[in-house]
Amino acid sequence: MKYVFNDGVMFIKIKGVLYDQNMENLVKFPEEKEINSYAIPDEIKVIEKGAFQNNKHLKEVSFNRNITKIKKKAFKKSKKLKNIIIPVDVDFIGKSAFEKCAKLKRVKFEGNISKLGSAVFSGCKSLEEINIPQLHAISALCFSDCKSLTSIEIPSSIEIIKESAFADCESLKEIKLSENLKVIKDLAFSGNLSLHNIDLPEGLTTIGDRAFKECTNLETICIPTSVTKIGLGAFEDCKSLQKVCINSKINLIQELLFHGCSKLKEIKLPLSVTCIKSFAFSSCKNLDSIEMGSNVTDIEDCAFIGCLKLTNIELPQSLLNIGKSAFQYCGSLEKIKIPSSVIFIGKLAFDNCIAIKEIEVVKDSYADIYLKEIGFKNLIKY
Hints:
Radius of gyration: 28 Å
Mean pLDDT: 95
Helix content: under 10%
Strand order of the largest sheet: 1-2-3-4-6-8-10-12
Largest sheet: 8 strands, mixed
Strand content: 15-25%
Structural class: mainly beta
Shape: elongated
Number of strands: 33
C-alpha cells in the first residue's frame, strides 16, 4: 500500500488500484492490469465515475455487500465483462455505467433500487437475461441496442418507460408490461424487429412519438380506452401490422401514425377523433376500408396518399377541410361522397385517382364548384 497525491488530494494505491484515503471509494482500476476476475474489497461503498471504464481483461467482478452506489461510466466499454450481480444495498447506478459492455450476458439485481441512470445497459449486445428491479421509471436508452435480449418483464412499480428505453432490441419477442404503466415515451420500443404483439395495459394514457416505429413484425395492436394521446409516427413502418383496435378517447390521428403500414386493411376510428393529420395513413398500400366517425372536421395534407387499394370512402357530415394531396395516388378509389359541410379542398386532393367514376356532392356546394373548376365535371353526381 502506498499514498499518492493528485491535485493536492491524497489517494491510497494497492496493487495498482486507486482508492480514496478512507478506503470507501474505488477510484480507478488500472486498464493494463491483466487479471480475469476481481473481488471489490469489503470496505468499498462507492465505485467512482469511470473506475473500470475501457477495461480489456476483466471477465468477472464480485461486488461486496456494502456497495451503495455505482457512478456513471463505471464499467463502460469493459470489453470482456460477462456476468454481474448487483448487491441488495446498491441504491443508485449512474448514467452509462455498463454501456457497451459487449460481452455482458447476465445481470441479476438482488434488491430494489431507486434510480437507474440513462443508457445504463445501452449497447450491451450480448445481454440475454436481466431482472428489472422495482423502479418508478425505466430511464432513457436504458436497454437500447441490446440485440440479444429476447424477453422482458416490466415490474408493477413502473409507471413510465422513457425515450428509446428498448430501442433497437431487434431480438425482443416477448414484453410483459406493468399493469400500472401510464406513459410510453418517444421511440421507447422502436426498431424491435422480432416483436409480433404487445398487450397495452388499461390505465396507459400516453404513447409517445414513434414509440413503436419500425417494429416490422408487429401484427396487432389494441389501444386501451384510457389512452388520450398517441404521438406522431407511433406505428410508422410497422409493415406487418394487420389489425388495429382504437378504443381510446384521442381526438387526433397524428402525423405519420400508420405511415407505411402496408398490410393494414381496415380501421375504425373512435368517435372522439376530430382531425386526421398529415401522412397519417400514407402508403398504407392495402388499406381498403376506413370508418371515420361522425366528428372528423379536418383531413390534412397527404393523409391518405398512396392508399392504392382504397375503393370508396364516405366522408362525415362534420368535415370542413380536405388538405392538399389528401387522396392523391389512391388508384383504386371509385366513389366518394363529399358533404356540403366542406369549405376547403386543397390542390391535388384527388390527383391520380385513375379509377374514380363518381363523386357525389350537393349542388352549388363548395365541393361542386371546386370539382368543376379542376375539370371533374363529368364525375359529379347530385
